[in-house]
UniProtKB/TrEMBL annotation:
Protein's job: Catalyzes the insertion of molybdate into adenylated molybdopterin with the concomitant release of AMP.
Protein name per UniProt: Molybdopterin molybdenumtransferase
Region spans: Disordered: 118-140
Species of origin: Amylibacter marinus
Swiss-Prot/TrEMBL catalytic activity: adenylyl-molybdopterin + molybdate = Mo-molybdopterin + AMP + H(+)
SMART domains assigned: MoCF_biosynth
UniProt KW keywords: Magnesium, Metal-binding, Molybdenum, Molybdenum cofactor biosynthesis, Transferase
Enzyme kind, highest EC tier: transferase
Pfam families in UniProt: MoCF_biosynth (PF00994), MoeA_C (PF03454), MoeA_N (PF03453)
UniProt pathway annotation: Cofactor biosynthesis; molybdopterin biosynthesis
Amino acid sequence: MISVDQALDQILNLLEPLEVEEVPLAQASGRILARDVFAQRDQPPFSASAMDGYAVRLGDIDTGKPLEVIGESAAGGRFDGTLGPYQAVRIFTGAPVPEGADHILIQEDCTRDGAQITPHDNRDHSSYIRPRGGDFSQGTPLKAPVRLGPAEISLLASMNIATLPVRRRPIVALIATGDELVAVGETPDANQIISSNNYGLKALIEGLGAVARILPIAHDNADDLTAVLNMSQPSDLIVTLGGASVGDYDLVQSTAQEMGLETAFYKVAMRPGKPLMAGRLRSTPMIGLPGNPVSAMVCGHVFIRPALNALLGLGRSALPSQPASLSRDIPPNGPRRHYMRATLENIDGKLSVQPLSRQDSSLLSVLQQANALLIREANAPAAKQGDLIEVIPL
Ligand SMILES: Nc1nc2c(c(=O)[nH]1)N[C@H]1C(S)=C(S)[C@@H](COP(=O)(O)OP(=O)(O)OC[C@H]3O[C@@H](n4cnc5c(N)ncnc54)[C@H](O)[C@@H]3O)O[C@H]1N2
Ligand code: MOO
């Protein structure tokens, strides 16, 4: 059996970043920027007022003398003249600061009487001027690769970048296998269960900006599996669910091999997830996940997430983990790295992690209560309450 790190490395070796396509900004949410893009303009494009009030010369208002209001600068327009001594221009938030002014006197800090304003003694001392280019200037890059969330999208809009080079969305074909499975919404007979793994994986995959195609459930025979595997195009990755272990009806690997699968590895020293398999079927990378529902989802986090990141040009890396303090003693671990379902809490700024009491890989209700995977290394000795241990937040 190979280690989790070796398995991930071999999976990543099967994958190349996908092609780049141009999309309009309004359709770029959640996509991965594939090349650096550059601001088309300065922002703000002029020095701008941050408040409603009066553009003045700071030296004038310190004297306590009244100032004469000689014009107005509102957002979308500007005051064209130059401010002279003891003059003020009425100004609004976002409007250009007129020539000669170096300070915005907010309207709460003065009294207006006709065309005159008198500054109050007890004033706010901020200048309230946003300098030209203070946010970014023309040519400022947004560096690739980066996932485009709301902050990036609004920044790019402000940079006046109307279309963007992004990675094509990976297409993942999902194949659940097993005679006991029926699709959600159908009526199972007494010996059947509802197929959940394909829906859980679809949610995980689509949350990362990829497209999941749920194919028909394959029955536990080579003909049916072959027929469904033959439906897997178009796809950038084939993920099978179940049929991975050593039982008489675990036929995924042997059937795929008949179809030309080149196996990269089979079996990983991890719990849950031991019967994981990966390879290349014809030209498409394929990952065979174990059928136990929690095993499938844990492998989804540990392998499918990094695999999709690789297809999206986000590099080759394992999911980030961080240390947290154990909230109770735990026994030594066996020979496989254990990803324990756990709850992670921030207590007074310190992360505390508690493994859930039931760790069987069939328990979706336990997975749903977990918000982290606690990593127990292979053959780790017993750990004590308060020990620091690595966790992957989910
Ligand atoms: N003698 C051995 N038996 C098993 C071993 C082993 O090493 N020796 N490994 C165990 C481990 S670990 C796992 S994990 C499972 C994985 O088996 P398979 O990948 O072949 O999965 P199945 O047998 O098809 O199913 C296991 C379990 O999960 C349920 N299942 C399957 N697919 C779905 C689905 N889409 N949605 C919901 N539930 C699903 C299935 O009904 C079974 O209950 O093998 C152990 N056995
Ligand atoms: O490793 Mo299996 O994946 O325990 O449930």
